[in-house]
């Protein structure tokens, strides 16, 4: 139990299949993985190895077919729908490859969304969003629409959105693959500098080798399994 | 979250305006077409509505609607007067006569003959002159629309104003002289013939000789008398048909429903408006939702409940519905207002507001329903697929 | 800005305008008040009929026995006349000339009598002279016979002349009668209701469409009520009856029963049109009323209500017609 307490995510034998019968596809074939709190864990591997499915299960937006996955000790699969939503809203932050900002909302408004979902008032949320945008270096662009921002700026807004409600786990899906090297680097610095804290865990799915250096640990996956976990990027390849 | 829903909706201007245009169009068609229909139907019995004083119309049992005149014997009037519960009963002549204008042209007019002594059944409003002026020799009162249009004469000089009739002008009705004593404002009749009021005995002189001349008997019930009882009593006592005003309107209305294609035509265009409106608005709304599916997915992943999403979509649908409805009703009213002094039949009763409101609500509900279904079944995991 | 505020505002304005149109466009049509309130029966159940005011003596249409041009109208409408009073005179020049001729003829006939009497006297003297001669030789028998004959002829001539006087006198009397007949006189005491002749007009003898003069006794007015033959069975002589003046229902009078004409006649329409249309038959009942009670004129139409039992035929008409109300 003592060890469990320090774990952000604890997966044992997580199995995920899509479809049934002949058309059944197995995405995860029994994943065992422990992510510690305050750690930046990267999931790498070839396309179709199950990285995205795994973080979906971790984030509680997908239920595994078998096995056990606990996030901060909570078995999400067996939570009631409502409680699961509340858990997600409070504890999980998301960063996407395609940013997924709401195109009709300004940067500040986009950032407020997690607060609003958690029931905060609009004015208060906006104030807080401006602070966070300041932190990510976009204090001057709070009123800009996503379409008026560059890719890097948009991703920074997305990071601000992912951290504003102080989640304990942030899942990132290819946060840098749509960005050039330099911008990707800056985004990773930001993630590591602001998002990562002792009580906040980052799980980043990527196959962008240029950012492996930011990881505390790297889990390499293939064919629905974690094949090895390294602590130094140089250990890969 | 509702604010976000609205921003999502309004942010996509093209789609937003598209949805509203579709709904506006649907609401316009669903209000304006029935308004014209109601206007036409009301004109079919405008003669009855314009004649507010009597409670009961007595006529030949074979009469099918208000312009279907089957005259009665003059003494039937006294038989109706003799029915218990009748406060008074007055004769009314209604017929079509050709009026010859001073320039020699002919125009068919509706001639209405009122009881000589009381002039019961006069026009609802007088524009010029008084009803009592009918007591003057050869006097007739003409409805102002008829006088300005059908009974006016072509201009004396090309491009000039049409020559309108004035008080004191004479007409020839079936070789009898008729002097214009006043102008009234009537609700238009369905065929828009000019209406000419005169006394009963004078109308009988104007009209070609017939054995029977009495078109209708207008009766008033004594206070406290139930109309249904009284009409039944008149029917059994005299063997004539007796209707209350509303019943007679209903008889005329049903005649139109049964014997003319007007209601079907309008029904078809209202249906078309509904279907086209529903198609445009529903389709645009749905494609709007589909386009934003990813964003709904993001919201869903971030912990927004289905219930909240449902309310967001309902709010969006309600807003576009209300705006489209308001604009449609406004355009209809504008149309009616612009056409108020023309020959166009347009009547806008309160139940049309309700009718198009229900129509727009149905369209929005339909559009929202298919969108909601899509969003509810959406797996939030899609957000990780690029 | 446009999409966010203007559109909803426009929509709201449109809806409000729609409401405005609904409210203003659907005001009930005003009800035209009658110029005069219609008469209402004072009875629970009654027979209604139209009545025509007439004089007690009925309305006497005066005619002339002889046609001729009117030379003088001696009375005015509304004048009271006594029996025997001259009403109007016709052109009598021809009759007067005839009278002169006849008078002259009478004079001549009288002169003829005198002449005949003188002849007779002469014949008588001659006869007497001859008869007084006794000597048959002095006068022949033939002469005597001739004188006798002459005397007889003279006597019959006198008779004839006397008869001619009688004839001439009779002819004179006839012309004088004609003269009297050219003056039309009232036969009863009454009031002149209508004068349709004027000096210079030609008056036709016999029944004319338009009476030359209408006379009536107005000491009491009668009202002739037409009752539809379908309602005739409900009529009771002793029933109360009230008549209302057309045009003002406050002017009314109680009626008392006079008599009923027990002969159902075709109804005449009261429009005054010369070609009357007959559509039903009516029972005519006469009521009287005091002219001082109600200022009614002869010939005026009135609405009459006669109290009657309310007896609806028990056999109801075949099924009530469609009485559904508009949706």
Mean pLDDT of chain A: 86
Taking strands numbered 1, 2, ... along the chain, how are they ordered across the largest sheet of chain B? Answer: 2-3-8-5-7-6
Number of domains of chain A: 1
Query: What is the N-to-C order of secondary-structure elements of chain B (H for helix, E for strand)?
Result: HHHEHEEEEHEEEHEHEHHHHH
Give Rg of chain B in angstroms: 29 Å
CATH architecture of chain A: 3-Layer(aba) Sandwich
Assign a percent range to the helix content of chain B: 40-55%
For the terminal residues of chain B, how far apart are their CA atoms?
Answer: 25 Å
Order of helices and strands of chain A: HEEEHEEHEHHHEHEEE
Could you describe the largest sheet of chain A, including whether it forms a barrel? Answer: 6 strands, mixed
* CATH homologous group name of chain A: P-loop containing nucleotide triphosphate hydrolases
Largest Cβ-defined interface: B-C, 88 and 72 residues
Mean pLDDT reading of chain B: 86
Strand content of chain B: 15-25%
**What proportion strand of chain A?**
25-35%
H/I helix tally of chain B = 12
What is the number of beta strands of chain B? 10
Return residue spans of chain A where pLDDT drops below 50 for at least 5 consecutive residues: none
CATH class label of chain A: Alpha Beta
